[in-house]
Amino acid sequence: MALLVLLIAGAFLSIAAAATFGRIDVPAYGVFKAIAAGLGLSSGVGQDSVWETVVFNIRLSRICLSALVGLTLAIAGAAFQGILRNPLADPFTIGVSTGAAFGASLAIFLGLGGHTYLGLGFVPLAALGGALAALFTVIALARINRQLRPETMVLAGIVVATFLAALISLIKSLDEESVSSIVFWVMGSFQGRGWNHVAFALPYMAAGLALVGIYSRELDLLSLGGMQARQLGVDVDRVRMRILIGASLLTAGAVSVSGVIGFVGLVIPHLVRMAIGADHRPLLILSGLLGAIALIWSDVAARVILPGGEELPVGVVTALLGGPFFCLLLKWRKERGGLD
Asked: What's the pTM?
């Protein structure tokens, strides 16, 4: 309970503190005034109006989106690790993230980025479609005697992800003009994102959270193995399919608006599992909160780390931080008896 309260407080403080970072200097009291004005609690005039535009419409929308993406990727990673019984599983494992990258790359290659859907470019919708198409392709390949097996899903995911990655490389080689757009999207970024992106992704994220949350107890049982779960009364195939769809909706919703961001879904669940154990209900909640905090500050680093005002893709920041950290985590777990 103490950890839950600490992470909730940390998430809200991170959202407020992150809004003070940017090219335009806005003091802390200006941030709170701008948020109040944006929520209609006060009227913004003069400098307050400028602060409202900068803080509420630009920074806060981006911060909230990064928090949502971090939350959903961490929860999806915890769900994939539990259902696949693989501590190295994350949203990349079954090709969902790569499917989204391929969908977005194809839309950019076909020149559909300028077309709009629900006030957005067509790229987020194409990414969402690519992610879901990759999921159902993996499921179709992984069925053996009409049953889904975790080990075959991992292999099918690797095959699909590798094939789609090759197609992305082919697209980049066929259209050199789109390479920069594709690469920047594939590396993950919140640049130019706003409240309309939050509104676009939120329904898919909410549906995914509902599915994973409803079956959190069954996820505990599935982690023991399919046979043990059946003996305890779980309809393994039905539950496994619904959790997979839920975790994939989380990933698809996140990747469709942020691009591909690695290591959040891999590292964060491990950290929380080390602190509280493998009970999935608290694991999912705490992983989501820690993932939100981690991605908020990773995006802040991506915005301010370069002195000239240029912006790094946030996926680069998470990889630079998450890669070495996960190597240390693996070494520590190995010394204590291996991954579980």
From this structure: 0.88
